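Appendix B. Raw example, untouched.
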Amino acid sequence: MVLSSRSGWAFLALASVVLTLAQASTIRDVIAYRAGDGPQPTDISKLTAEIITNDGYPVEEHQVTTADGYILTMFRIPGGPGNPPREGKNVAFVQHGLLCSSADWVILGPGKALAYLLVDAGYDVWLGNARGNTNSRRHIFHDPDARNTDFWDFSWHEIGFFDLPAMIDYALQYTGQTSLQYAGHSQGTTSFFIMTSLRPEYNQRIRSMHALAPVAFMSNLRSPFVRAFAPFVDQIDWLMRMLGVNEFLPSSDMMTLGGQMLCRDEARFQEVCANVLFLIGGFNSPQLNRTMLPTILSHTPAGASVNQLVHYAQGYNSGRFRQFDFGLTLNLIRYGSIRPPDYPLQRVTAPVALHYGDNDWLAAVVDVRQLHNSIANSIGLFRVSDPDFNHLDFTWAIDADTLLYNRVISFMNRYN
């Protein structure tokens, strides 16, 4: 079935709304359980901290409040087996992508996952969580589950402007360091470029930045999901707002249970699960460990604001890396112009290494090259040698350690 009409995409948007509303009560049950105010829901997914502990690494949970009131959770892994915690270690901060969480960096397990490889290499590792995901659904006064709440009134602009600076400042102050290594995937790169272009003082706090599947310019992306809904983004945004739903694909036990039932080994629908991921980020069947699909789907999607999706669609439509487009009237009020301003990438002076894949359907090679030409201090463009390496392989690929992570750590070591 091909949906090409406005009514077809309105139906898809409505279906997303229904799914979100159906998950809302489950989300409340999970949050209540984690706060100690309710029974444990069935099949609740493990938190990042539980995964790390079960893998034999020490972990600390830290909260930081942003300047605009969001309460974010970070997980710190200060050491590991044979590499005990100690003062003075170099700090590595790792930030997840859209609809993801800190769990991305540990679910591959010891010897494979980026967080553990960094710890084993001697780093004091901090895993960030952006506002609105499973670990950061709190605000000093906004309720994320209330109808028409202002909690979800943000895009990845605010993540870059408020969240990253708050988390980086906290990690540096806590460890007594003055600068750190940064690695981010997808939205974790977008938000970094916002921080360092609009708050350029943070360039001095970055020893080197490793952009995994960097997303800034998006004109040439191939993902059918984004290309399909981008022309109707204004209507979808309007519909979601009219229905009072501003959260997109929250994490829930429903998704966890569905992953366990439909995507496990020997399940008839396992290949459907795999192909959904491939349609988002590109096909690379040999690098997807299908046995891990239930684990992946228990943590992803981890929740996001509708405006995060809308902002990316605006970037695809405009061909520019610029601030959120609120429409002519609000743009005039907020920006003093009818169009939102571009992010001043010339102000990004931290050393940046751009790691890309040929088969990335969300971070096209030509767009990554445009980004490379727009920043002042690029370490360089670094291609992953697997020609089929896709957008999601940067976090979940079977051979991500040998194809990518070892190189990232080697570069980090040079900049300490």
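End of appendix B.
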